[in-house]
């Protein structure tokens, strides 16, 4: 099955125009997070895995030849056990999600220590893959027909029909990694045609997480997918992800021309992170009720909320805290907490803007 080359072409690069702080009716109030239980990372001994349990392949999924993956976020407790497990993303199969969570519960670490005392380690991520060997992993005929139907609708710019047909494909089930890869490519292209960059990035990530060595789309597609992800992350102000993606670009063989193309934008990102500009990130609560973002700064606020948001959870290297949403407040994170992810929970499709603030914009 051939995929359209123009679906993966690099689009225009920009740092966007969303880096100004929107005026609000009231002065944001600072939320000073507790410092005493946090410690400098330089003095910490990080946790080390001592027991990892492979997830059990669900029997019914194996019989069907189903494959998938699950990404999880978790906390390593002071006794080295794993707790507070959250499914961040997956191929959408509940059986795999349950198996992944159950396996991760059995993992054991030697805990992190500071000054001889164990501490929690709260910034941990893992992807567990479910792949079968020795099977024909091509796509089914009915999948190929459905794929071509969606592609034809896209070629005619009938986005309504393309969306409808792609939803039917999902409802009928995606069997293996190859089918999920091509389905994600369709959804990314539909989102691009609809100018929905958030949804497009979601599905481009799904392609890369499933086909990270070009097994299904071909080795020549992988660098183009990385470029596409780089651009989408850049234009959505996901700057730590931009830097991570560029590191992956640098590992590609015979890729000097591409590195030279992207490097000026990496320099702009690094300068922006050091600047006094406000960084604006669009947020939208997913179907499972949350939204995740890796913070590049130690202060942030939530603005322009449309819908209902419930909680803000911070998961940092050595600290985890949960707060009620306050749209007129600024969260100021102590430097000693280390790198942090923020998890915003609320009603599905609720939208908002997360503003990452430079130090001078944090009220004292």
Written description of the protein model:
By secondary structure, this protein is α+β, with helices and mostly antiparallel strands. Among the domains are: 44-130, 2-Layer Sandwich (TolA/TonB C-terminal domain), CATH 3.30.2420.10; 219-275, no CATH class; 279-356, Jelly Rolls. The protein contains 9 helices and 17 strands. The protein has a 5-stranded mixed β-sheet with strand order 1-15-12-17-10, with no helix packed on it. It has a 4-stranded antiparallel β-sheet with strand order 11-16-13-14, with no helix packed on it. Strands 2-7-8 form a 3-stranded antiparallel β-sheet, with no helix packed on it. Helix 5 packs antiparallel against helix 6 (197-210). The longest helix has 19 residues, at 256-274. The protein is globular and about 60 Å long. The N and C termini lie far apart (59 Å).
């Amino acid at each position: 099955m051939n995929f359209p080359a123009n679906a993966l072409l690099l689009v225009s690069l920009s740092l966007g125009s969303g880096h100004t702080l929107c005026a609000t009716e009231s002065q944001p109030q600072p939320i000073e997070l507790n410092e005493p239980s946090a410690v400098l990372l330089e003095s910490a001994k990080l946790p080390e895995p001592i027991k990892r349990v492979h997830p059990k392949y669900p029997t019914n999924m194996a019989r069907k030849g189903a494959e998938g993956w699950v990404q999880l976020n978790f906390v390593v407790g002071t006794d080295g056990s794993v707790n507070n497990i959250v499914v961040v993303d997956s191929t959408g199969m509940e059986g795999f999600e349950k198996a992944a969570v159950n396996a991760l519960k059995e993992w054991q670490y030697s805990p992190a220590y500071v000054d001889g005392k164990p501490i929690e380690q709260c910034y941990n991520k893992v992807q567990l893959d479910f792949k079968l060997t020795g099977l024909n992993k091509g796509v089914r005929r009915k999948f190929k027909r459905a794929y071509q139907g969606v592609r034809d609708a896209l070629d005619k710019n009938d986005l309504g029909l393309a969306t409808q047909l792609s939803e039917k494909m999902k409802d009928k089930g995606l069997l293996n990694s190859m089918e999920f890869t091509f389905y994600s490519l369709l959804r990314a292209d539909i989102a691009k045609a609809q100018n929905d960059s958030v949804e497009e990035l979601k599905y481009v990530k799904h392609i890369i997480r499933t086909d990270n060595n070009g097994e299904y789309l071909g080795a020549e597609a992988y660098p183009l997918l990385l470029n596409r992800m780089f651009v989408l992350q850049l234009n959505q102000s996901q700057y730590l992800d931009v830097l991570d993606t560029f590191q992956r670009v640098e590992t590609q063989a015979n890729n000097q021309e591409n590195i030279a193309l992207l490097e000026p934008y990496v320099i702009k990102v690094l300068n922006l992170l050091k600047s006094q500009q406000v960084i604006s990130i669009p947020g939208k609560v997913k179907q499972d009720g949350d939204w995740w973002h890796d913070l590049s700064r130690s202060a942030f606020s939530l603005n322009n909320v449309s819908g209902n948001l419930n909680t803000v959870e911070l998961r940092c290297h050595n600290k985890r805290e949960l707060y009620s949403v306050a749209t007129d407040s600024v969260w100021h994170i102590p430097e000693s907490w280390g790198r942090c992810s923020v998890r915003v929970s609320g009603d599905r499709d609720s939208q908002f803007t997360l503003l990452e603030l430079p130090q001078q914009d944090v009220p004292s």
